[in-house]
Specification:
Strand order of the largest sheet: 5-4-1-8-9-10-11-12-13
Distance between the termini: 20 Å
Largest sheet: 9 strands, mixed
Shape: globular
Order of helices and strands: EEEHEHEEEEHEHEHHEEEHHH
Strand content: 15-25%
């Protein structure tokens, strides 16, 4: 069983499925609602555990009702939690509205962060892969320093200054189009900083990838899109898992895209876990 360390954000997601996102001063009624653990690192850890790995999440939860729900969901998914929250801190929920086309609008609670975290001493002797989402810079720095010789995967959904500090430690950088295009940084320039792979996702369009010696794309399977929430996070967790199985980086991306495609075809927070746990159409 491979072990992955996932470093970053855990949230309580409050999700409302609506026919259309309301305009200003307009009310609407949700067709369905749920609340569950979310956040880039947390959902990636859940995906990794669902595929058969041992996922360890280094995050900031604290105390309170929201943290209790998140902790319970992570325990059910088999994710080990290392909580670096200072005394008295509690996470804030994030709210998402999901339309009938599967796209969503999100108000994130991640802006509610502690001034300081209590980062433990990290011994990564049993860890096979590390993922950083950059949401808790102190934790990302500590994990980057401790991860010498390990694959270090970055979920670059948006630019975070801590990534600039960690380039020497990063081996695999998976960016969203939102990360690359506003900054004007081309993937080739990112690759020149040292990682073994840079990949850019574009929603339902193919994932583009570059290594020092090759480039290509991975098209997404054609599936009915029901719910896109957390699909990128599932992709990152599945990519981490695939790397630990001896697949090449291209093969790991193909595996990850297939896993993310299963997620978008399922409504709700964790229905997709069964497909990952019991097998799915994969490269």
């Amino acid at each position: 069983m491979p072990t992955g360390l996932f470093v970053g954000l855990a949230t309580l997601d409050v999700v409302q499925f609506v026919d259309a996102v309301p305009a200003a001063n307009q009310k609407t009624t949700a067709r369905e609602s749920w609340l569950a653990a979310g956040g880039p690192a947390a959902v990636a850890a859940i995906a990794f555990a669902s595929l058969g790995g041992h996922a360890r999440l280094l995050t900031v939860l604290g105390t309170g009702a929201a943290a209790d729900v998140v902790r319970a969901d992570l325990a059910t998914a088999g994710v080990e939690v290392v909580d670096a929250a200072p005394s008295g801190f509690g996470i804030a929920p994030s709210v998402a509205l999901v339309g009938t086309d599967g796209n969503r609008a999100v108000v994130s609670g991640s802006g509610h962060q502690p001034d300081a975290v209590q980062c433990p001493e990290l011994d990564l002797g049993d860890v096979d892969v590390v993922l950083l989402d950059g949401h808790h810079p102190e934790l990302a720095r500590a994990a980057g320093r401790a991860a010498a010789g390990l694959p270090v995967v970055v979920d670059a959904g948006s630019h975070k200054s801590v990534f600039d500090e960690l380039w020497p430690q990063l081996t695999d950088v998976i960016c969203s189009a939102d990360y690359v295009h506003p900054s004007g940084e081309r993937p080739a320039a990112l690759l020149a900083r040292g990682p073994h792979l840079v990949a850019v996702s574009h929603g339902s369009d193919p994932v583009m990838w570059w290594t020092p010696h090759a480039f290509g794309e991975v098209p997404a399977p054609s599936v009915p899109v029901v719910d896109t929430l957390g699909a990128g996070d599932v992709l990152h967790g599945a990519y981490c898992y695939a790397l630990t199985t001896g697949r090449s980086r291209r093969e790991s991306l193909e595996f990850a895209v297939a896993a993310a495609s299963r997620r978008v075809g399922q409504a709700g927070p964790f229905a997709w876990r069964e497909a990952l746990r019991h097998g799915f159409d994969q490269p």
